[in-house]
Design brief:
about 50% strand, 1 helix, about 5% helix, mainly beta, globular
Length: about 220
């Protein structure tokens, strides 16, 4: 009887753990590392150690995008961006970024849940721009200048982290220091593309971690 009870308890324990088995499941179809998290969220990791990882990204318009020295390089545009091909509802992004060359001012541009139309402010979604004199925040085609003072310096690497909560609250952290927060209710539940780039500059991105939900094809935007 005691053995039977132990077997039953073990069986119940195994059943309870079945949903957890999905957490580290590899999601096929991506050149980067994609693993399943709790609740259907996907975690992507790109270290750009292999040229194949470029398959999941595409340059917009005249932007030149390449993998070199273990980094994603983006240049030649106003702005130039590399767009993550899969549409997502991004809830977290971590990226090491640097402006390595610029014409008039260093720039590093990040756009989340965006329907990209080529405009540096972006017609849909949130934009975060580090430039030579201060930081900009953009939302749905409008920019708020000088949300905080941090002059982006050429050649200096910044670790940036962005979070968008399900209710729309967002945060922007640089080198472990939270610099900007905003309650943006219109962002709640939005999806789009992740775009990384720079304005009249060359920027590099590496060690990218993206956490979010893949948007079904029938629900994706056509832009």
């Amino acid at each position: 009887m005691r053995i039977s009870i132990v077997v039953i308890l073990l069986s119940l324990g195994l059943v309870a753990c079945i949903p957890e088995a999905d957490k580290n499941e590899v999601v096929p179809g991506f050149a980067g590392k994609a693993t399943r998290m709790e609740g259907g969220k996907i975690r992507f990791h790109y270290d750009f150690s292999t040229p194949e990882q470029l398959k999941d990204w595409q340059g917009h318009d005249k932007a030149e995008v390449e993998i070199k020295d273990g980094k994603l390089w983006v240049k030649n545009g106003t702005p130039a961006v590399a767009k993550f091909k899969t549409e997502l509802r991004v809830e977290r992004l971590v990226v090491r970024s640097a402006c390595v060359k610029n014409k008039w001012s260093p720039h590093i541009n990040v756009y989340l849940n965006n329907r990209w139309n080529g405009d540096w402010e972006g017609e849909w979604g949130a934009g975060f721009i580090l430039r030579g004199d201060y930081a900009l925040y953009c939302f749905d085609g409008r920019s708020t200048e000088n949300v905080f003072d941090l002059g982006c310096k050429e050649g200096l690497t910044y670790e940036q982290e962005f979070k968008i909560a399900p209710g729309g609250a967002l945060s922007w952290t640089i080198d472990k220091k939270k610099r900007f927060t905003k309650n943006e209710a219109k962002l709640a539940g939005r999806s789009g593309h992740l775009c990384l780039g720079a304005y009249e500059a060359t920027a590099t991105f590496d060690d990218i971690v993206i956490e979010g939900y893949i948007v079904p094809k029938e629900a994706q935007s056509t832009k």
